[in-house]
Amino acid sequence: MTRPFAPARFAPARAAGAFVPDLLLENVEVLAPDGRPILRVARLEAPAGTALGIRGPSGAGKSTLLHVVAGLLPVASGRVMWGDADLAAMTEPARDAFRRARLGLIFQDFLLFEELSAQQNAAIAAAWAPARDRAAIRARAEALLDRFGAPGDRDVASMSGGERQRVSAARALACDPAAILADEPTASLDRENADRLAGDLLAMAREAGRTLIAVSHDPALIASMDQVVQVVDGEVRG
Ligand SMILES: Nc1ncnc2c1ncn2[C@@H]1O[C@H](COP(=O)(O)OP(=O)(O)OP(=O)(O)O)[C@@H](O)[C@H]1O
C-alpha cells in the first residue's frame, strides 16, 4: 500500500557532493490563522554561498520570513525554491524531510532537551540519521561544541542563555547542512561572545560554501553579511 504522505527522500547535502542550492522566493504571501496577511515577498534571491542578513523593526515579519524559508510555515501563495525544490508545493512531511537533510536551524523556539547533555543535544540528529552517518554526526557535534566553546558534558538545564545558544549552533551544524538559518543568533550573548559566534558562523558558512541567512538586530552581525534585506510592515525590501 502506498502511504499518501510518504516523505520525499533527500540525500544529506554534503554527502550528495557538496550541493548547495540557490534560494529564490517569488510572489510569496503568508497569512495569519485569522486570514490577516503578515508577510509579502515579491522576490528574494540568495545565490548559493551568500551570507544574507534580515533586519527590520520588531513585529515586521522577520521570523515569519525565516520560518517560511525553513519550510516551517506554509504559504498561501507563491514559490519558495531551494534549487529545484519548491517548499511551497510540498506536503508537510516532505518539507520536514528536506529541512532535516539540508538546513541547519538556530532558532530560539527550537528547544533543546533539558535533561540531555550538550553533546547529546548537539548530536541529536544521529537519532534519526541512517546508521552509517551517526558516528560522523557525533564526531562533528563534539568538534563544534569545542569550537564554539560550549561545555559538552553538562546538562543544558544548567546552562546560561549564551551557552545554550552555542549548543544550538553546534546542533545546527552537526548535520553538515547546505544552509544555516539563524534567528537572532547573538541575542543572548555579550559583545565579545556575540562577535565570536557571528565570526564562527560566517567562517563555517564560507569554509564550505554554505548559505547563511540570519535575522538580527545586531548591527555588527548585519554589517558582516554579503547582502542585507529589510522587512518593514510585513514586506521585504532590498
Ligand atoms: N501565528 C500567528 N498568529 C497571528 N499573528 C502572527 C502569528 N505569527 C506571527 N504573527 C504576527 O506577524 C507579525 C510578524 O511577526 P514576526 O515574529 O515575524 O516579527 P519579527 O519581525 O520577527 O519580530 P521580532 O523582531 O519582535 O522578533 C507580528 O505582527 C505577529 O504578531
Automatic annotation (TrEMBL):
Note the SMART domains from the entry. AAA
InterPro entries annotated for this entry?
AAA+_ATPase, ABC_transporter-like_ATP-bd, ABC_transpr_LolD-like, P-loop_NTPase
Q: Entry's SUPFAM superfamilies?
A: P-loop containing nucleoside triphosphate hydrolases (SSF52540)
Query: A GO CC term?
Result: plasma membrane
What would be one Pfam family of this protein?
Answer: ABC_tran
User: Origin, by domain of life?
Assistant: Bacteria
Sorted UniProt keywords: ATP-binding, Nucleotide-binding
Keyword tRNA processing recorded: no
Any GO MF annotation of the entry: transmembrane transporter activity
User: Where's the ABC transporter domain?
Assistant: 23-238
Q: Which family does it belong to?
A: Belongs to the ABC transporter superfamily.
Protein known as: Putative ABC transport system ATP-binding protein
Task: Give the species this sequence originates from.
Answer: Albimonas donghaensis
